[in-house]
Every structure is written in C-alpha cells, then in structure tokens.
Amino acid sequence: MDIVAIMGSPRKHANTDMLLDEMIRGAEENGHNIIKHYIGDLDVHACRGCGVCMSGKDCVFKDDGLTVTHQIAEAEGLIVSTPIYFGQMTGDLKVLLDRMYGITHNPLIPLTGKVALIFTHLGPEGYYDSYIELTKIQPFQMNMHYQILDVLDVGSLGDVRNQPNKLIEAYEIGKKF
C-alpha cells in the first residue's frame, strides 16, 4: 500500500467523501495504491497516555486504531478528509489521530511521508484558516514529521457538485502524490 486515506465524516457518499474520492482517483491514476478507511466503521479506543509505546511496544489497545496507525506508519502518504462541524475536525477522527502517539513515540517505528488534507465546512472559504494552519503544524508536521503536500479548503458548502472547481482541485492534489 502506498497511501492511506481516512474519511473523517460519519456521512458516507456525501460532500467530504466525494472530495476524498476525487483525490484518491488522482493518486491512483498516478500509480498509487490506496487503502481507504471510513472513521465510522472503525473501533478505536482513545489514547490513555499510559506510555507503553514509548518502550518500543505496541499500543495496549488491540483495536482498529492499532491496525490503521501501523498502516499509516508503513505508507508513503496519507490523505485526511474531515468536515468542520463545531470549529474542529470530527471527534472520531481526532481520537484516531491521537492514537498516532503510539507510533510517534515508539522508537522502533520511523514515521515520514506526505499528507494532503481536506476540510469542508459551511463558513466562507478562509474562515477556518487559523485552525487549518494549526492542524497542519500539529500533529502532522511536528509529531508525525510529514510534508504537507496540499490542503483543500471547501467553504460555503451546499452540495459540492455545485462547486465543480473544488472536485477538480481535489483530483489535481491527488495527482501530486
């Protein structure tokens, strides 16, 4: 597998998922293999900060979070797609990303790669710029040591099919992998 794609919305086949699929299509046409996860289908326990991972051992939780975080660590790239519902990414996505603590603090697992981010919301484009910038830095650049490939901010969202330029932009970002 080359790239892991995480669909952070509980709404399958809706706007955020359509944009993710376009980004995936671009990456696949560029020769990459993708494994896509729907956050709502995963059983992920929240990190409890026990520190077991810091001694070179796997997370104490043997759930989907362990599987997906290891897939992310082995992949060359990551695509994260999330709506902004209450000023931030979805809670389920945040719980999964917090589980990356078990990878980033494990001295036996190197972590580098590229990440592309998709944020959808109802505010005007640019409304969440400060949150998006913070999210790029932490966790992706500081903790995960990822290179930010690109960010797609889709605001004023109704039906994304009414913003065909955003679907094209998602596809073109996928081609950058």
Task: Please give a handful of descriptors for the protein shown.
177 residues, alpha/beta, five-stranded parallel sheet, 6 helices, 19% strand, globular
Question: Could you outline the blueprint of secondary structure elements for this entry?
Answer:
Layout: E1 3-7, H1 15-29, E2 34-38, H2 64-74, E3 77-83, H3 91-98, H4 101-104, E4 113-120, H5 129-141, E5 146-154, H6 164-175
Parallel strand pairs: 1-2, 1-3, 3-4, 4-5
Helix pairs in contact: 1-6
| Biggest sheet descriptor | 5 strands, parallel
Total count of helical runs of at least 4 residues: 6
Q: What is the alpha-carbon Rg in Å?
A: 16 Å
Segments where pLDDT lies below 50 for 5+ residues?
none
Main β-sheet, spatial strand arrangement: 2-1-3-4-5
Mean pLDDT: 95
What is the structure about, briefly put?
With 177 residues, this protein is α/β, with parallel strands linked by helices. The protein contains six helices and five strands, in the order βαβαβααβαβα.
